[in-house]
Amino acid sequence: MQFDEVIAKSENGKECSEPAGAPETQNQWANFFDAPNVGFVICDENLRYVKVNDALARMNGIPADAHLGKTVYDVLGEAAATVEPAYHQVFATGEPVSNVEFVAKVPTRAEPSRRIGNLFPVKDREGRVRQVGAVVVEVQETRRREEDPQAKAWLQMQRLEALAEFGTLLTSKFGDQELFFAIADFLRKTVQPDFAGIALYDESISQMRVYALDFEIARRVVGSEVRVPVTEEAWGSAFLNADTIVYDRERLSASQSSYLMQLLQSGIESLGCFPLTTPKGTLGTFNLGWRRTSAFLADEIAFLKHFASRIASVLDSVGAYREIARLSDKLRGKKVSLESEIQSTQSFEEVIGDSPALKRVLAQVQTVAPSEATVLILGETGTGKELIARAIHRMSSRKGAPFIKLNCAAIPTGLLESELFGHEKGAFTGAVRQKIGRVELANGGTLFLDEVGEIPLELQPKLLRVLEDQEFEHLGGTRTIKVNVRLLAATNRELAQSVATREFRSDLYYRLNVFPIHLPALRERDKDIALLVRYFVQKFARSMNKKIENIPVEAMNALANWHWPGNVRELENFIERSVILSEGTTLGAPLAELLPHALPRSNVTLEDMEREHILHVLRESGGVIAGVRGAAARLGMKRTTLQSRMQKLGITREEYQG
Question: Exposed (0-12), middle (13-18) or buried (19+): which is 144, by Cβ within 10 Å?
Fold first, then answer.
């Protein structure tokens, strides 16, 4: 079976892309699918097997084809309960989950087997997670992991994945501290050292500056930073010789270096010093230590040399970045007035419209953006709350820092705390490594919480503490983490009513409601519909390589007269379908979907028209609500929002499935 056969089909027939990861890892995934001793599986959102390779079929004791259509519970029994949360986490976050250990007791095998799985998302071309894949290996208890070929294959895959993730993170990390935290996180995922430090040569003082990475022994021996002579054996030898030096316990004991003696007294038995070499020369050294003997096998040294070269390359880029930043600062003062004019235009480039209602909103954005105030963006679903949040960020002093967003309604309640605040290793079942939360990722920048009204009551005090004190702890952690974050929040709920019913804390509501911005529904700015229609027609025509020059007058009138319960998102989805259906240069809009607009407006209420339209779309979609072909997607709203409106309007199943 070839790897390209694994590419799955999504519900609308579009191909899903290969497993998420860096391009250089794609051939590795293909090799794993065909590997004789490494299991490879892809499951859908119901945890049903879509593809299984022969290796996993042998592990489970049933043919590969016999898996198809069955759930993981059907095959793994009780062991499925261990892996299910990890699957749901990948679906919810779109991020891989590593090192999921479980014991499988399959009926066809006499003895249980201990397994380790790495899960990853399989996304469609729009970036949505459609399926989840997993690489699974059995670990023989009678053999050390270093001697187990299957475990070595798994270890190699894990390191490739971590390297790809590390490279992606560094595209936005230029500060020393951010870089050092990323390196420490990578080391924990891959080689798990007991000590790690970096020494960089400072030409201005002819000394080595030594920095401790986030490991206990390193902090104890080095502190935050020390300066040592370039002749200091612990940090300077590998730098001067531009070569790797490995210490065992005997060599550490014979050393005259006070730093090496402190490491030995702290229990370090093996130490490796790797030069940080670039084409321009050697920058310093990268030092790792373990409390075990013989830590440096040949494979380990080769891998760490490769990683040291990656660190050196990034450190070299950091130096270049600092010089560019210094020169840019000198020019910035000469361009303030010009930049402010450009920014005013670019900040709203994705916000289309010229109506008085929208202009009032944009004026509020320009007023509040330069401040540090918390902003609460209110409006119906599909009105463009995220676009306004991004505009505020682009016009603020934090525009060069991260803009981190989180849809609170899209994350299962049990995972929301970890997603927001991060967790420590071992904080809960499946927490095999430390995770950095969205609040910490947004440090120095802006955090946008969409659907903030969905945050459960028990988490609200922790968010309030971030707003008031700019500090929090990881789930399962005790160390207080300080951050500098501006919070933007959005909701389509009446938070004041939620406060009255005690579903939302009043103190948090008042902290969020410092500067509220109310976004008008599309029906309240109907003069913008023509502009939006033309914008979306051109946008989708370009993406589909079509040339659409004419929009029929009757189509434009119908669009302008429709009340758009799903607002701009519904209009955008309607225009996308229209462009798909267009065969020539004239827009072929499916006006039958807007049939209820023909009802005399004097005889019906807006609620009547909304009810009729929702029923019409439900009938057109065959009664299907969720999914890409469902009524919710066609209306441009979330499944839960549509179900809530159906209940409010008294729509019953018999009315659209009769």
Answer: exposed
Phi then psi for residue 199, to 5 deg, are: -120, 130
How many Cα atoms sit within 13 Å of 379 on the Cβ side? 32
Provide the token pair at 346. 């670019």
Instruction: Give all domains of the chain, ordered by start, each with its CATH number.
Output: 3-147 (3.30.450.20), 176-328 (3.30.450.40), 347-518 (3.40.50.300), 524-657 (1.10.8.60)
CA–CA distance, 148 with 141 (Å, rounded to integer)? 10
- Render pLDDT for 412-422 as a digit per residue (tens, 0 to 9): 877 889 889 99
Q: Which residues contact 206 (CB under 8 A, 6 or more apart)?
A: 230
pLDDT in tens, 162-209: 666 665 555 444 455 667 777 887 787 777 788 888 888 888 778 888
Give the start-end residues of each E strand in 213-323: 225-229, 245-247, 270-278, 281-290
Sign of the C-alpha dihedral computed for residues 96, 97, 103 and 107 taken in this order: negative
| Burial (0-12, 13-18, 19+ Cβ within 10 Å), 206 | exposed
- Which segments of 562-594 does DSSP mark as H helices, in order? 567-581
Q: For residue 226, how many C-alpha atoms fall within 13 Å in the half-sphere facing its CB?
A: 16
Contact 154, 137 (CB under 8 A): yes
* Complete edge-to-edge strand list for the sheet that includes strand 129-138: 49-52, 39-43, 129-138, 113-123, 97-104
The answer to whether 270 and 251 have CB atoms below 8 angstroms apart is: no
